[in-house]
């Protein structure tokens, strides 16, 4: 650490928690993808299926990649700080771009179908979460 004290050892069981978090994240992505593919017709950009891009992108960006970006400093605690900062920034940047694609998809889908934007509590809470993430 910066004050000269020895770096504490990795907490007991951290790798098991990380493995479980990754497994749960991948299962969430797989089940979201399976739900969209099997029950909602799949995903496509310029089609009635454009809306379906939204849940997939939000889960991938705002849950999985954002979560991984937060774990970088714990998982790679013995790596060079510069390397972990770069990985942290790349994961956050990728999460941000993917979430933005998900937001654009839902706005375009609404416009195409004549549905008003920002009409639900979900949309306001989601936009607040995204804007706060962006500002952070």
UniProtKB/TrEMBL annotation:
Membrane disposition: Multi-pass membrane protein
Ranges that cross the membrane: 12-33, 53-74, 86-107, 119-135
Molecular functions (GO terms): metal ion binding; oxidoreductase activity
Localization terms from the record: Cytoplasmic vesicle, Secretory vesicle, Chromaffin granule membrane
Primary localisation category: membrane
InterPro entries: CYB561/CYBRD1-like, Cyt_b561/ferric_Rdtase_TM
Cofactor dependency: heme b
Signal sequence, renumbered to the chain: none
Catalysed reactions, as listed in the record: monodehydro-L-ascorbate radical(out) + L-ascorbate(in) = monodehydro-L-ascorbate radical(in) + L-ascorbate(out)
Sequence ranges assigned to domain Cytochrome b561 in this UniProt record: 20-136
Entry keywords, A to Z: Cytoplasmic vesicle, Electron transport, Heme, Iron, Membrane, Metal-binding, Translocase, Transmembrane, Transmembrane helix, Transport
Gene Ontology cellular component list: chromaffin granule membrane; lysosomal membrane
Pfam family, one: Cytochrom_B561
General function of this protein: Transmembrane reductase that uses ascorbate as an electron donor in the cytoplasm and transfers electrons across membranes to reduce monodehydro-L-ascorbate radical in the lumen of secretory vesicles. It is therefore involved the regeneration and homeostasis within secretory vesicles of ascorbate which in turn provides reducing equivalents needed to support the activity of intravesicular enzymes.
Protein's UniProt name: Transmembrane ascorbate-dependent reductase CYB561
Upper taxonomic lineage: Eukaryota, Metazoa, Chordata, Craniata, Vertebrata
